[in-house]
Each structure stands twice: as structure tokens, then as C-alpha cells.
Write a structure and sequence with these properties.
By secondary structure, this protein is an alpha+beta fold. The strands form 3 sheets. Strands 5, 6, 7, 8, 9 and 10 form a 6-stranded antiparallel β-sheet that branches. The chain has a 4-stranded antiparallel β-sheet with strand order 1-2-3-4, covered by helices on one side. The N terminus is likely disordered.
């Protein structure tokens, strides 16, 4: 008896899990778990910085490469991997490769799976400021007034909860909670950690609560620490915000509102590949130009190493040129 295999013609017939497993040569089948690997786009990536994760929004797998800023779905992954000009070309390659896979007696079982529940923040325990906290923040010339203005509080500990497991209590001499003006926490910062310094609690465009909309210019920075560093330089005609990270672009709706509220909006991202990539994306998508400060990796480090005056001396002409373009 002859055995036949169906030839597919639509990208929607290709299991999304197969795309990631096949092109990334993953060591295990994807069944709802998140996977962290070394970047396939950055050969210098010594610490795994590429995440393959199951999106709760789309219920499909996606990827985010923090070392280069690349992110997207399986089609975008193949487009970037093989330098293809359009998503259509990537989809066509995936269809052809999957057909070859099945015709060569490969098999891929599509099965239902449950999303592996992730740890969520259950509670935080605040503490008083200490001399050690002061020493850390004053390295970046950030004092108590700025910390209070941006609602940063030191934490004794925080507790994570996950269904079916014991709670995890995390303690450290340096843990900081990033709060909104309504008292809700949106992020936890652990500067002593070499990996996963931040624990994201909820979506929030950092610095939004502090915007006055009474100045002509808005600067989009990389982080809340960079926002505070920018404040220390005393530019009176500009204020700042920062997305969750450089790799998360502000939505079109948000950007359009900001462009209406300010005379000019510019970006000031980190001096690394991810920062440069984000700067180019904002310019391409929204016509927002970027100031590229090359002193150190980020603005806060510039102030820490070179001081406020030297950093301002380098940054001011960059901002002027960017704003006048």
C-alpha cells in the first residue's frame, strides 16, 4: 500500500513550535516552557541573552534577543536568520522546508499543552534607606530628592508566588522597588545581580507620571536611571521617559500622542548594538532622530565615570544637532 503525505501551501499549517525547534536546533521540544539560549545573531554573546517564550497575548511562540534588539515571531526569525528581504520570502522558505521535512519521513506531533505558569509578585517588604544605598546612588550623582521624585523605595525583600509551588522570598542588601505615584509597583531592581537585574511586575512607560508637558522637547531614554541622570544635567527645556527596555518600542498610538504634545521628540539610547538598533527603528518608524552619545555604555555610566559637567559638554551639542535636523 502506498503511503502519502500532505503537501501544505499555507504558513498557517506549519506548527510554530517546529519553526523554532528546527531553525534554532533547540535541545528539547517546546511544550509551553520558556527557553534561553545564546544569541544566534551575535557570535560574541557569551551569556545566553536570547529568549524563546510563549506569548500570552498571541498564544504562540516568539523570540527576543536582548544582545541585538531583534525580536518577533517565527517568520521574523527566519527572515533575519537568512537575510531575506520580506516576510513573504521567509514564509515561503518555511513552507518549503517543512514540506521537505515531512516528505523525508520527519514527523511533528501537534499537541495541546498548558502554559507553564510563571512566578508573579505576591508582596514586597519595604525598609529604611541606609548609608550603603546612598553610596550606590551617589556614584551616579543621584540623590534623595530624585529618588523620591521618581518613587524609588528600598526593599527588604519581595515574595514570588507560583501555582503548585512554595513561595520564594528574595532578600538582598540592595533591592529597589520602582513605584508609580498611586503607590503601585511596576518593577523591581536588583543591581547586585549579574543576570535578571530587573523583575517586571506590570507594563509602564517609566517617567510618565512625572511629565509636565510644559517644555518643548521630550527625550526617550533607555532606563529610569538614565532619566534621573539626564535630570542631573539641568536641561530646563526637556523632560524624559523610558520604555520597559530599549527592545520594547513605544506603540504607534503613544508616539503619535507624544509628537502632538511636544515640539520635538528625540531618542537617547545606550551605546551598544541594542541601543543603536532601537535608535534606527524609531527613526525609520516614526521619523524620530537619535542622539548617539559614545562616552560609555549608557548615560548613567557617563555621569558616574566622567561627571556631570563633562557628560553635559559632550551631550549638549549632540542634542542640539539632533533637534535641529
Amino acid at each position: 500500500m502506498l503511503r502519502t503525505k500532505n503537501i501544505i501551501s499555507s504558513i498557517y499549517e506549519v506548527p510554530v513550535e517546529w519553526i523554532f525547534e528546527n531553525y534554532l536546533t533547540l535541545p528539547a521540544k517546546l511544550s509551553g516552557q520558556d527557553v534561553k539560549i545564546k544569541s544566534v545573531f551575535n557570535p560574541k554573546d557569551n551569556t545566553p541573552s536570547m529568549f524563546i517564550y510563549h506569548s500570552r497575548t498571541t498564544s504562540k511562540y516568539k523570540y527576543k534577543d536582548f544582545s541585538t534588539g531583534k525580536q518577533g515571531d517565527g517568520i521574523e526569525l527566519v527572515k533575519e536568520l537568512f537575510f531575506l528581504p520580506k516576510r513573504f520570502d521567509a514564509a515561503l522558505k518555511i513552507i518549503n522546508d517543512y514540506n521537505e521535512f515531512t516528505l523525508s519521513n520527519g514527523s511533528f506531533n501537534i499537541k495541546q499543552f498548558t502554559i507553564h505558569s510563571k512566578y508573579e509578585l505576591h508582596s514586597v517588604q519595604q525598609r529604611n534607606w541606609t548609608e550603603s544605598d546612598s553610596e550606590y546612588w551617589t556614584e551616579y550623582k543621584i540623590g534623595s530628592k530624585l529618588l523620591e521624585h521618581y518613587n524609588i523605595q528600598p526593599l527588604e525583600s519581595f515574595t514570588l508566588k507560583k501555582n503548585g509551588t512554595d513561595d520564594i522570598v528574595i532578600r538582598s542588601t540592595k533591592i529597589y522597588g520602582y513605584f508609580r505615584t498611586d503607590g503601585s509597583i511596576y518593577k523591581i531592581y536588583q543591581p547586585l545581580m549579574t543576570d535578571r537585574k530587573f523583575f517586571k511586575v506590570k507594563n509602564y512607560i517609566q517617567g510618565t507620571d512625572q511629565l509636565t508637558y510644559a517644555v518643548p522637547y521630550l527625550v526617550i531614554c533607555s532606563s529610569l536611571k538614565d532619566i534621573m541622570a539626564f535630570n542631573k544635567m539641568g536641561f530646563k527645556n526637556a523632560e524624559c521617559i523610558a520604555p520597559d527596555s530599549e527592545n520594547v518600542m513605544l506603540s504607534k498610538e503613544v508616539v503619535e500622542k507624544l509628537l502632538k504634545r511636544y515640539k520635538k521628540v528625540v531618542t537617547l539610547f545606550d551605546n551598544d548594538q541594542a541601543g543603536i538598533t532601537s535608535m534606527i527603528k524609531y527613526n525609520k518608524e516614526f521619523g524620530i532622530r537619535g542622539a548617539h552619545l559614545k562616552l560609555e555604555n549608557d548615560l548613567a555610566d557617563c555621569i558616574k565615570i566622567h561627571g556631570i559637567d563633562n557628560t553635559r559638554e559632550h551631550l549638549q551639542p549632540l542634542l542640539k544637532r539632533t533637534l535641529l535636523k
